[in-house]
Design brief:
The protein has 214 residues and is α+β, with helices and mostly antiparallel strands. The chain folds into two domains: 39 residues; 150 residues, Glucose Permease (Domain IIA) (Distorted Sandwich). The chain has three helices and 14 strands. The strands form three sheets. It has an eight-stranded antiparallel beta sheet with strand order 9-5-6-7-11-3-2-13. Helix 1 runs antiparallel to helix 2. The radius of gyration is 18 Å and the shape is elongated.
């Protein structure tokens, strides 16, 4: 099991404090309907910023999901960040998913590159190349290249990445966060074997997206 942070993500603490205080004050001085609404907002923020511990498979050939959500892409395409043909698997996160991002493999970071862009619905294919995004290229422990791209969405306006070039990552290690709806694209060697299909629901670190070809 991996316990990188308390159950509630640190990114959410200021939002929880603000919404809690607002709900408390409204409860003391406001009408009932406003109090109910304020409590609902607080509970929504609370569930959004949850960051539970996850089981991490130990298979060295397994590529783990970097995020919770739903699979929206499984295809062979071009990885422009590592300049290669690749297998692309995309995980779409709605506002009810955990938004903590975790490393899909063990490895060393080759590069971290931020790209400004639009805020289209992250469920759309063109969001991968047109939206604001942050690409982390990893040299995996087995020698393969894995690219994980945090993509902002229609509501998401803040991509957080806590790692840099030259740092090492462990599978399941928490390395970033995206606030309020987004997606993560994972680019793998073109001969990697996908273990998920479009529409599957996945959990960060616990779900195996694909396996490296032995």
């Amino acid at each position: 099991m991996n316990y990188p942070h308390p159950f509630i993500a640190k990114e959410g603490w200021p939002f929880l404090a603000i919404t809690f205080i607002a709900a408390f004050v409204i409860g003391l001085y406001g009408p009932v309907w406003a109090t109910v609404l304020a409590v609902i907002v607080f509970l929504f923020v609370l569930q959004f910023f949850r960051d539970p511990a996850r089981f991490i498979p130990s298979d060295p050939n397994a590529v783990l999901s970097p995020a919770d959500g739903r699979i929206v892409v499984v295809e062979k395409t071009r990885d422009v960040y590592a300049n290669r043909d690749a297998l692309k698997i995309s995980v779409f996160m709605n506002v009810f998913n955990v938004h903590s991002n975790r490393s899909p493999v063990d490895g060393k970071i080759q590069s971290v590159t931020y790209f400004p862009g639009k805020f289209l619905n992250a469920d759309l294919d063109k969001a991968s190349m047109e939206n604001e995004r942050n690409a982390v290229v990893i040299h995996a422990a087995n020698g393969a290249t894995v690219t994980a791209v945090q993509v902002a969405g229609l509501i998401a306006r803040r991509i957080l990445c806590y790692v840099g070039q030259g740092e090492s990552l462990s599978r399941g290690q928490r390395y970033g966060f995206i606030r309020f709806g987004s997606r993560v694209d994972v680019y793998l060697p073109v001969d990697a074997i996908p273990k998920v299909t479009i529409g599957d629901k996945v959990s960060a670190s616990s779900t195996v997206l694909a396996e490296f070809k032995a």
